[in-house]
Amino acid sequence: MTSGVTTEPAVLDATELTSDPELEARFAESAHRILADLVAGGAALGWVEPPSREEVAELLSHVVSAVQAGDAALRAAYLGRRLVGLGYWLRYARPTHRPHADLEKVAVAAAAHGRGVGRALTAALISDAREAGIEVLTLDARGDNANALHLYRSLGFTEYGRLPGFVAVGEHRYDKVFHMLDFRRQG
Predict the structure, then answer these.
(1) Domains, the chain, ordered by start
(2) What is the 3-state secondary structure (H, E, C) of the chain?
(3) Which of 129, 155, 166, 172 has the maximal Cβ count within 10 Å?
């Protein structure tokens, strides 16, 4: 990866990320900053309050272990040498669900919104899932996250369910929307 600023995000996989000691050393802290800032701004990433550094470090450690076992993919998006987004999927652990995976998170720093980072991350994760032999990639999103829902539909995901008013954030209620990308139907 070059040290100059680029207009297109560089999307690294876990192997590329860990092969650069400088990026690897800063990854957990940079990921924490992105996730905490997004959650503080109201983003629907699974936390009501911004996660602690320890929570994010533990989460990333779990994902990296799953990647090493062939049960996950992790992607990190950079503009220049600055982390601007991350995403991952995890294979379902139950034996009957092993051919499938859940796209757990795609998070893009607010300053990088509208620059194609979310699309690049999600497309890379879809490609990783296809290469790993995943049959169905699922995800869920909060119903008011129109930009994410539009992105997922544009990449081939279809809605397969909705739980009205399921997500409670204080006094507010949001739908939980389920999407899937069925690689079996794509040949």
Answers:
(1) 10-186 (3.40.630.30)
(2) CCCCCCCCCEEEEHHHHHCCHHHHHHHHHHHHHHHHHHHHCCCCCCCCCCCCHHHHHHHHHHHHHHHHCCCEEEEEEEECCEEEEEEEEEECCCHHHCCEEEEEEEEECHHHCCCCHHHHHHHHHHHHHHHCCCCEEEEEEECCCHHHHHHHHHCCCEEEEEEEEEEEECCEEEEEEEEEEEHHHHC
(3) 129
